[in-house]
């Protein structure tokens, strides 16, 4: 524990050593992440660790922390280690079966709510490729009269989304299906949401290690040009949107013009776009003509 001044079994010593390990592994903010993991292992708050850095770490917590540290040093995402991630106003269970909800994707929720002059106009919601259920559940949380269906090709994802609905008190207004996009869906919806795979196939292995190694390729790989999922979605959206309905799609950097062209060719009208926290066009809103 070179460079760590606190005694060997203390909170401070564990944080110091973990910070060194994570820094050597190329993890950003290593001390902050060490605090998150140790507080998780000790079932306490981060501020409790800072209050008494010389406090001993119990043996069971030390073992749990050591395993978390080992996994994080391989760049396994923190959300997988903790089993949860925050999104919008919700706390969601996560697993390797789905993408981890990210703050930039909240632009989809913002765009969806802004697309209707009266939020109560949103009654029926469809989420294609629902993953954790993040998009559908966030909209339902904001629209108490709405109900929705989430569809995912992965059975584990659909089951995870259902658990998240129950955990957030939304199970009565949300149903989840395992299916191939909208193949099992009949009916029309006021709002269709989707965060489809949009990374070019060749670029998937070049993503940050947390993503390339640990998140499902099925949810990332959008084909040679990254647009395969949009081609499919534009083919089915006209039959899914109710009169006055809107679809809100997540798009990748530099894809807005190409996806708008696909929408136009399918008889859909792009009506708005919203940028994410980094100023990148992230949410595209389209409607039937």
Automatic annotation (TrEMBL):
E.C. number: 2.1.1.297
Positions annotated to bind substrate: 195-198
Gene Ontology molecular function, alphabetical: nucleic acid binding; peptide chain release factor N(5)-glutamine methyltransferase activity
Catalyzed reaction equations: L-glutaminyl-[peptide chain release factor] + S-adenosyl-L-methionine = N(5)-methyl-L-glutaminyl-[peptide chain release factor] + S-adenosyl-L-homocysteine + H(+)
SUPFAM superfamilies on file: S-adenosyl-L-methionine-dependent methyltransferases
Function recorded in the entry: Methylates the class 1 translation termination release factors RF1/PrfA and RF2/PrfB on the glutamine residue of the universally conserved GGQ motif.
Annotated family: Belongs to the protein N5-glutamine methyltransferase family. PrmC subfamily.
Domain Release factor glutamine methyltransferase N-terminal: 17-83
HAMAP family assigned to the protein according to its UniProt record, in alphabetical order: RF_methyltr_PrmC (MF_02126)
UniProt protein name: Release factor glutamine methyltransferase
Residues of the Methyltransferase small domain: 121-203
Stored InterPro entries: DNA_methylase_N6_adenine_CS, HemK-like, N5-glutamine_MTase, PrmC_N, RF_methyltr_PrmC, SAM-dependent_MTases_sf, Small_mtfrase_dom
Positions with a binding annotation for S-adenosyl-L-methionine: 129-133, 152, 181, 195
Protein origin, superkingdom: Bacteria
Keyword annotations of the record: Methyltransferase, S-adenosyl-L-methionine, Transferase
GO biological process, one term: methylation
Keyword S-adenosyl-L-methionine carried by entry: yes
PANTHER family: HEMK METHYLTRANSFERASE (PTHR18895), MTRF1L RELEASE FACTOR GLUTAMINE METHYLTRANSFERASE (PTHR18895:SF74)
NCBIfam families cross-referenced by the UniProt entry: hemK_fam (TIGR00536), RF_mod_PrmC (TIGR03534)
Lineage, broadest ranks: Bacteria, Pseudomonadati, Pseudomonadota, Alphaproteobacteria, Acetobacterales
PROSITE patterns recorded: N6_MTASE
EC class: transferase
Natural source organism: Neoroseomonas lacus
């Amino acid at each position: 524990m070179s460079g760590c001044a606190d005694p060997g079994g203390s909170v401070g010593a564990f944080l110091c050593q973990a910070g060194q390990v994570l820094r050597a592994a190329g993890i950003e903010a290593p001390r902050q992440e060490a605090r998150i993991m140790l507080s998780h292992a000790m079932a306490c708050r981060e501020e409790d660790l800072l209050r008494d850095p010389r406090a001993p770490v119990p043996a069971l917590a030390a073992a749990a922390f050591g395993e978390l540290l080992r996994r994080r040093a391989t760049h396994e995402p923190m959300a997988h280690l903790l089993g949860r991630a925050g999104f919008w106003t919700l706390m969601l269970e996560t697993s390797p079966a789905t993408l981890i909800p990210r703050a930039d994707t909240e632009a989809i929720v913002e765009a969806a709510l802004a697309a209707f002059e009266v939020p109560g106009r949103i009654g029926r919601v469809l989420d294609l490729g629902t993953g954790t259920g993040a998009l559908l559940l966030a909209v339902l949380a904001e629209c108490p009269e709405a109900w929705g269906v989430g569809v995912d090709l992965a059975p584990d994802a659909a089951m995870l989304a259902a658990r998240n609905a129950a955990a957030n008190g939304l199970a009565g207004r949300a149903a989840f299906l395992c299916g191939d996009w909208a193949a099992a869906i009949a009916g029309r919806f006021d709002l269709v949401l989707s965060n489809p795979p949009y990374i070019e196939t060749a670029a998937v292995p070049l993503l940050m290690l947390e993503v390339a190694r640990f998140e499902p390729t099925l949810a990332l790989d959008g084909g040679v040009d990254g647009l395969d999922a949009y081609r499919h979605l534009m083919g089915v959206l006209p039959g899914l949107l109710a009169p006055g309905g809107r679809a809100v799609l997540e798009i990748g950097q530099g894809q807005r013009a190409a996806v708008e062209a696909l929408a136009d060719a399918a008889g859909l009208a792009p009506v708005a776009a919203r940028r994410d926290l980094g100023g990148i066009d992230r949410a595209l809103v389209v409607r039937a003509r």
